[in-house]
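Example S7 (structure tokens).
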């Protein structure tokens, strides 16, 4: 209980330091998941504990000794010509703990360099990347803690920035009830080198999350609920008014959208924090997953044609010694993301070669 109390005290300390949200921070690419499994569960999850190294990106406490020797390779086909890549490796050291090293690279495609008069000078390829070092330790039979440190670098031709960040996570596991509860403070840190040295340092996209996963008794189903941004309740925003010369009218919202009642208004604000995931796991090495991200749907849907924006789905299977997962998330009617994760235990290959 003392350990839990200390963890919550640290959480509230970080809460006071990093209250910013969308549009007010730098390095927003840190919010994009690299895991096919997490992408299929709605894009956010702190509690799915299933020996998947890619999930450590969302909560370092999920890293455990069973992942030792695992390597993961992830490819994310994002919107437009944007592609992301992630690779990671983990290792367990006796009496010390579990370590994982990861590299996350963001490729935004090829751009044409031109001035304000239209003269072209060539092409350039902007990019972002992070190097992540994670550490976790098992406190007792039920509790795990972990931390991930990140070095961040952003390169947009003439504009460059760097930063340091950390994720601090905790995990409670009750095997008897098949329940896991996770909490994490994500992207707590600061900008080092600034895009514009004359400007003030910008905050990072801090996010305080808590969630749980529960397997249904006597059924091959697992449900997950994740609550994001505990540091700020109201995540709604308004679009500033702007004058449209073609229609000679103002576009945008001058004030928040009126709800039918205060109850519905409160429910809408509450649901913008919720990410729901469900998995069908008929046996150990196969799963089908579904997810729903309410906030993503409300912010990116087209009112006249919302479709299935905000929903996601995926599948995972083990083939021989390889674990292959695929996740697809619909962000907008005009585009979606596709995530592929391939992982294997390289120690198993090494031990097999030595044995021969």
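Recovered sequence:
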């Amino acid at each position: 209980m003392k350990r839990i109390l200390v963890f919550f005290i640290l959480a509230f300390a970080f809460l006071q330091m990093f209250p910013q949200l969308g549009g007010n921070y730098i390095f927003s690419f840190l919010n994009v998941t690299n895991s096919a499994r997490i992408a299929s569960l709605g894009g956010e999850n702190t509690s799915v504990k299933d020996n998947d190294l890619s999930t450590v990106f969302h909560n370092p406490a999920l890293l455990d000794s069973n992942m030792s020797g695992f390597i993961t390779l992830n490819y994310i086909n994002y919107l437009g010509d944007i592609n992301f890549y992630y690779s990671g490796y983990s290792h367990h050291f006796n009496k010390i703990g579990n370590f994982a090293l990861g590299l996350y690279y963001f490729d935004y495609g090829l751009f044409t360099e031109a001035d304000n008069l239209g003269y072209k000078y060539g092409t350039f390829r902007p990019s972002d990347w992070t190097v992540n070092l994670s550490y976790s330790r098992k406190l007792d039979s039920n509790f795990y803690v972990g931390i991930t440190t990140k070095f961040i670098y952003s390169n947009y031709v003439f504009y460059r920035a760097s930063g340091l960040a950390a994720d601090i996570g905790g995990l409670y596991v009750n095997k008897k009830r098949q329940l896991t509860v996770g909490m994490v403070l994500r992207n707590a840190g600061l900008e080092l080198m600034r895009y514009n040295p004359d400007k003030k340092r910008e905050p990072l996209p801090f996010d305080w999350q808590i969630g749980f996963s529960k397997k249904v008794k006597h059924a091959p189903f697992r449900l997950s609920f994740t609550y994001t941004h505990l540091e700020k309740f109201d995540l709604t925003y308004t679009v500033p008014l702007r004058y449209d010369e073609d229609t000679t009218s103002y576009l945008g919202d001058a004030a928040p959208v009126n709800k039918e009642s205060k109850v519905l208004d409160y429910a809408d604000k509450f649901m913008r924090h919720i990410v729901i995931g469900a998995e069908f796991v008929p046996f150990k090495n196969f799963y089908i997953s579904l997810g729903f991200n309410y906030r993503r749907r409300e912010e990116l849907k087209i009112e006249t044609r919302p479709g299935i924006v905000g929903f996601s789905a995926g599948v995972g299977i083990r083939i021989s010694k390889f674990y292959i997962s695929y996740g697809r998330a619909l962000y907008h009617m005009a585009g979606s993301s596709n995530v592929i994760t391939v992982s294997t235990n390289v120690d198993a290959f090494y031990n097999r070669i030595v044995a021969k």
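Notes on this example. Residues 2-231 form one domain.
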